[in-house]
Write the structure tokens for this entry.
Amino acid sequence: MPTGVDAALGWLRREEKASIARLMDWLRIKSISTDPVYAPEVQRAAEWAASQLREAGLSVEVCGASTPAGVKGHPIVMAHSPGAKDYKGPHVLFYGHYDVQPVDPVELWESPPFEPVLKPAVPGGPGERIVARGAVDDKGQVMMFLESLRAWKDAGGAVAGGVKLTVLLEGEEESGSVSLEKFIRDNTATRLAGCEVCVISDTGMLARGRPAITYGVRGISYTEVTLHGPDQDLHSGLWGGRAPNPNNELVKVLAQLWDKDRRVTIPGFYDAVRPLQQPEREEWRRLGFDPVEALKKIGYGKDADVGEAGYTAMEREWARPTAEINGVWGGYTGAGAKTVIPSKASAKVSFRLVADQDPDRVRTSFFEWLRNRTPPGCRWELTDLHGGPPATVKTDSAPLAAARRAIERATGVKPAMIKSGGSIPVAGLLNSILGIETIFMGFGLDDDRVHSPNEKFEIDCFRLGARSHAVLLDELRVVTA
Ligand SMILES: [Zn+2]
């Protein structure tokens, strides 16, 4: 009889159909967090996850949560396993979310979003897969972890493989995690006490069959700016050339955000940016990413491979900050011509940030930069929409090394070490409040249609992920915290 991790892996192999069936049960619950109509379903999805954790032997609470302003939020599921007596590894926090995005446009779904179906592999295309809202983001990825816990318990091993474990599953990730920060602050010394490293499965692999560990995500600062001019819309024949036009003035100011090398011109913007080291650049080059191929997929030719001078496309995505105008509007935008000078003009401007930039500082210096360029007679209205710090993990930490070994043992493939240009604000939050780093061990693919119709999760990805988590629990036991 195999014991320990071998027994758990054998269990995952034998019980895979049942694991997938459980995932499908969870996917049938319509836990759309942003729409209050679905609040009872969100609650049900939380209770469902709680029951899974309970069956895996953990002690579980479904906690109430609320925003700093006291608005009631969706529940947060917390679970604990004390760890084996002789456990010397780190106290691990696993974070995931059980809420999902809305399903519209629903007519583009080939099967109803909350009636998960198993679809066969397509030659040269996606493998056998589950199609449903939440299949990969994030129920499917959380389920890999839940099933690895169940495997350890049911195969006769210790609860959570003997690892000292805290689990936090939130229900507001897809609607801004508005209660999470307060919950973490309120529970730092209680439910979250002692956590030393976080594991999140909400990221992707490098490609099919090429598992990866994401060791950095970018932060974000998102703003809205409005430039107010005259107290009324004006006739451009009578007033054009006589007084500032907010549209003209806004675009003139925003165009100064980049210099000729496409570097952001806000003073101090790059001060906190960790410089890219040569070994890291070489490692990334060896991943074999083809920027021209990627551009082709979005309808661009190779001359579009431009960005901050001196960096490759991958470096620009993974290790350099950016400024983007996400929307710009003002004046007449309907059909035909209307000769108007608007009273105001607006833009949404966001910054993706890298370690160790601080979103508050970036926003403050952007607003200061705008005020120093206030066009004559005009005034700014400046709004902070949201922000979150970047998160980068040390690549030489013992838990990260354990995760690398786990993936290699579980899948037979050395994981690629990658970063992501996207933002997972919870990682930065955990870092700034609890002082812990996050290992992103995700098994999604870039064609999983996250947030879109026909979202899918491939069975092979689920399998690699469940096995990797089971072995990670084993590897953590030999790490000394
Ligand atoms: Zn999502």
About this structure: Residues 97 and 138 are 6 Å apart (CA to CA). The pocket of zinc ion is lined by residues 101, 137, 174, 450-451 (CB under 6 Å). The longest helix spans residues 459-476. DSSP finds 14 helices and 18 strands in the chain.
